[in-house]
Amino acid sequence: MLNKIISNILPYMPKKLVWVFSKRYIAGETLEDGLLASKLLNAKNIEVTIDILGEFISTLEEAEQNRNEYMEVIERFTADKIRGNFSVKPTMFGLLIDKEACYNYMRDIVKMAASKNSFVRIDMEDSQCVDMEIDIFRRLRTEFPANVGLVVQAYLRRTKSDLEALNDLNTAAHPISFRLCKGIYIEPESVAYKGYQEIRDHYLDDLRYMFENKMYAGIATHDKYLVEEAQKMIREMNIPKNMYEFQMLYGVTPELRQSIVDEGHLMRVYVPYGQKWFNYSTRRLKENPKMAQHIIKALFVR
Ligand code: FAD
């Protein structure tokens, strides 16, 4: 209840106050911040995926600028030998303004990543974007089979059939690469499962489908139950290490993260940076069960 009230007032809170809670989820505002956080994670035997913040833009000029920023970070990753890849949100390249322009900007990025033997993951946004994002992924994957992957959301009712439909792209030489997450956007019940355990059950069902069909799985979750069930599945199905990785968000559940690394699994952390941190971090704050406590403390305890 308290979390719900705070969720509603978050957008109206002073940016400075929101930053106090947000900074744990964001590497910083600049490229150098993103590189430094990535290097520190690499030093802990953790790979990264970089996300430049910004989404749902309103002009294509912004899309071009975003494309250029990604080109720069790809260059710097190679020059600095950082172990990691790149995550992109199609709406930051104008998906909802001009789909073809968005495709072309994203193609530039994937082409650049391919030239460096790297990889780009297409984040999945809200349900209005799913068909278009799958379509862009299909086109890019056909041209760059080793260099592009997609996110799928276990809470969507359609996800299992999307996986089945995309299976036609899967090959032994280039297993299709998915990140599986629960899904973060607020969706109507007609579109998304709502029950906590129901979403977990679908998550595990989707993961099993990926393993059975020899797809590469990025297991993106901080839910200890899902981590343990996934590890059990990996053992029971004898899944080789080159067919999966675990993924977590910057600043979330570092102890659980470390325990997975210590057990010898590949871990990748999603490292967001940039000036447009407000939308990303308020979504994260709403997920943090301790958020209400922290915010009330900060408001009253000086
Ligand atoms: P939850 O049940 O939400 O969390 C499990 C536990 O983790 C909580 O009980 C709590 O202890 C801890 N926890 C979770 N979140 C926080 C937090 N913010 N602060 C502190 N503790 C926390 N969603 C999309 O819709 N599209 C994407 O492209 C996408 N990409 C993602 C990439 C990665 C690498 C990850 C890890 C998540 C991504 N997500 C994406 C978000 C995802 O869909 C979930 O909303 C998010 O991961 C929370 O779900 P959970 O599985 O961690 O389980």
From TrEMBL:
Presence of keyword Lipid metabolism: no
Cofactor: FAD
Domain of life according to the entry: Bacteria
The entry's keywords: FAD, Flavoprotein, Nucleotide-binding, Oxidoreductase, Proline metabolism
Gene3D superfamilies: 3.20.20.220
Free-text remark on how the cofactor is bound: Binds 1 FAD per subunit.
Entry's EC annotation: 1.5.5.2
Residue numbers binding FAD: 124, 153, 221-222
GO molecular function terms listed in the Swiss-Prot or TrEMBL record: nucleotide binding; proline dehydrogenase activity
Residues in Proline dehydrogenase domain copies: 41-292
GO biological process entries: L-proline catabolic process to L-glutamate
Catalytic activity field: L-proline + a quinone = (S)-1-pyrroline-5-carboxylate + a quinol + H(+)
UniProt pathway: Amino-acid degradation; L-proline degradation into L-glutamate; L-glutamate from L-proline: step 1/2
Entry binding sites for substrate: 89, 283-284
Protein name, UniProt field: proline dehydrogenase
